[in-house]
Amino acid sequence: MKIVFTSLFTFLLYNFSHAQCSELFFSEYIEGWSNNKALEIYNPTAEPIDLSSYSISRYTNGAVQASTPQQLEGTIDAYSTFVVGLDKRDPEGTGYDAPMWDGYYTYVDSITNEEVTVYDSESDLQSLIDFWANGVYYSGTDPDSAAMYPNTMFFNGNDAITLDLIGFGVIDLIGKVGDDPGAGWTDGNGAIWTKDHTLIRKEDVAEGITGNPVVFDPTIEWDSLPANTFVNLGSHDCVCDNSSTLEDIKSSFSVYPNPNYNQTIKIKNQSDIHVIRLYNFHGQLLSNEKVNGVKEIEIHKPQTSGIGFIELEDSQGTKRKSIVF
Fold first, then answer.
1. Residue ranges of the domains in the chain?
2. DSSP state of 228
3. Into which CATH architecture does domain 8-87+126-226 fall?
4. Spatial distance between the Cα atoms of 290 and 127, rounded to a whole number of angstroms
5. Residue 144: which H helix or E strand, with range?
6. Within the chain, how many helices (H) and strands (E) appear?
7. What pLDDT score was predicted for residue 7?
8. CATH architecture of 246-324
9. What's the CA gap between 37 and 196, in Å, rounded?
């Protein structure tokens, strides 16, 4: 069974209340180059869930009617994730149908003049997909294929996406239905967060968004990383996982804003912070600051740009998170 929301009014009628940690929600959003598109769903409950009762819908460029929903298949285990990917695996694909990255690159050695193939696991999105969707190959000229092209997984940063419980309605939402944000949704400084980015749901989020927001502010519930960042896909840290030990819960800390365009970085930890270190992408130490036992602190952003890492020491040990400067 598949459902299509015919208007924004219908969308709002389907909202319903549910307790935290009781229903599936989106935990990661991959809007990478070309056809590197994926959505990660998280099960915050203690029981496995049959996904045949769920679907994903896309509202294109401010539309109030969804494209044909993609009904899901399979099972998502307790406190686990399920990754849906755009089915572009044809190695011969080009242009509109360039294949999703599999981590393999071939180049011609300048000395031997021989082809060399290398594998980079951090560029391998294909191996992380649990369910392939919308495997339509479109040359850019066939009108029949063109009509099928705007399906669910062909989002590009300015399309609202919903996770739906079939027969009940929306249980989570990325974006705002009926709103065309232009290239993509932005933070308070005007920086685009959805187009050419990876979004990761914050650890303290315990339920999806069931009501269409007045304004979609991605900074409230998401952390943002650059395009084609796949290394976090396939697992998710969440406060709902009560199977975690006390040490696991205390090992988390939050960084805001991320990406960071401000002069300062805000850090919040579960226990007293002793030391904070900042590194650039190459592992070079940028700063090393001792802290007098506080749980929240604001530090100066280094004079650098790109991906970096924050390393924090507390009574539980050392932990690290990535940040975009």
1. 8-87+126-226, 246-324
2. T
3. Sandwich (2.60)
4. 41
5. helix 143-148
6. 3, 19
7. 42
8. Sandwich (2.60)
9. 10
The torsion of the CA quartet 33, 35, 36, 37, rounded to 10 degrees, works out to 120
Q: Are 209 and 215 in contact (CB under 8 A)?
A: no
Phi, psi of 162, rounded to the nearest 5 degrees: -120, 150
Identify whether the C-beta of residue 253 lies closer than 8 Å to the C-beta of residue 319. yes
* Per-residue model confidence as pLDDT tens digits over 115-158: 989 999 889 999 999 999 988 777 667 666 665 565 899 999 99
Burial of 66 (0-12, 13-18, 19+ CB in 10 A): buried
Please name the residue that has the structure tokens 């084609």. Answer: 228
Torsion from C-alpha of 95, 127, 132, 62, nearest 10 degrees: -60
Distance from C-alpha of 62 to C-alpha of 155, rounded to nearest angstrom: 12
Q: Which two tokens stand for residue 138?
A: 């479109």
Q: One fold for both 8-87+126-226 and 246-324?
A: yes
> SS in 3 state form for 1-46?
CCCCCCCHHHHHHCCCCCCCCCCCEEEEEEECCCCCEEEEEECCCC
Provide the 10 A C-beta neighbour count for residue 269: 23
Tokens matching residue 135: 């495997």
Identify the DSSP state of 186: B
Looking up tokens 């205390």 gives: 250
Q: How many whole angstroms separate alpha carbon 54 and alpha carbon 71?
A: 6
C-alpha–C-alpha distance, residues 238 and 241, integer Å: 6
Burial class (CB in 10 A: 0-12, 13-18, 19+), 8: middle
d(CA 244, CA 287): 32
Return the structure tokens found at 60: 């294109």
| Cβ neighbours for 117, distance < 8 A, ≥ 6 positions apart | 104, 105, 106
pLDDT digits 0-9 by tens, 204-245:
999 999 999 999 999 999 998 889 999 899 999 999 987 654
E strand or H helix at 247, and its extent?
Answer: helix 246-250
Q: What is the CA radius of gyration of the chain?
A: 21
